[in-house]
Amino acid sequence: MRNQDTTDSPVARTISVIGSSWTCLILRDFFLHGPRRFQDLQESLKGIAPATLSERLRTLEENGVVERRFYSMSPPRAEYVLTAKGRDLGPIVRAMREWGRKYAR
Predict the structure, then answer these.
(1) For 3-23, how does the pLDDT look when each residue is reduced to its tens digit (9 = 90+)?
(2) Residue 63's domain spans which residues?
């Protein structure tokens, strides 16, 4: 069997974007509720530290999975929405939900 560089595989690259703790739960929230404000996410994801949520959203934004849209400039207020790239993760999130229902009890 040939030794492959697993750090550059499609799965490894996907995990680098969505594999951090909390990230899949953040994505789940978007699929359940649509556009979300920071406070909405923090209330929904019990136990996530604000700094962690901020860092995960920044990573998702940098990778083109979510977009921050400002809806008020004074004071500045924003909501996060899934991009087309983020919506393409829907089958993965649904598959994880189904796997969890079937096997993780």
Answers:
(1) 566 778 999 999 999 999 999
(2) 7-103
Is 21 domain-assigned? yes
Query: Residue 11: in which H helix or E strand, if any?
Result: helix 10-18
Alpha helix positions (H), 4-104: 10-18, 23-33, 38-44, 50-62, 84-87, 90-103
| CATH code, domain with 91 | 1.10.10.10
pTM of the model: 0.89
**SS3 of residue 8 by DSSP:** helix
What is the count of structural domains for the chain? 1
For residue 74, give both structure tokens: 């004074």
Q: Decide if 2 is inside a domain.
A: no
Whether 66 contacts 30, CB under 8 Å: yes
If you search the block for the tokens 């229902």, which residue do you land on?
101
Block residue for tokens 């978007």:
30
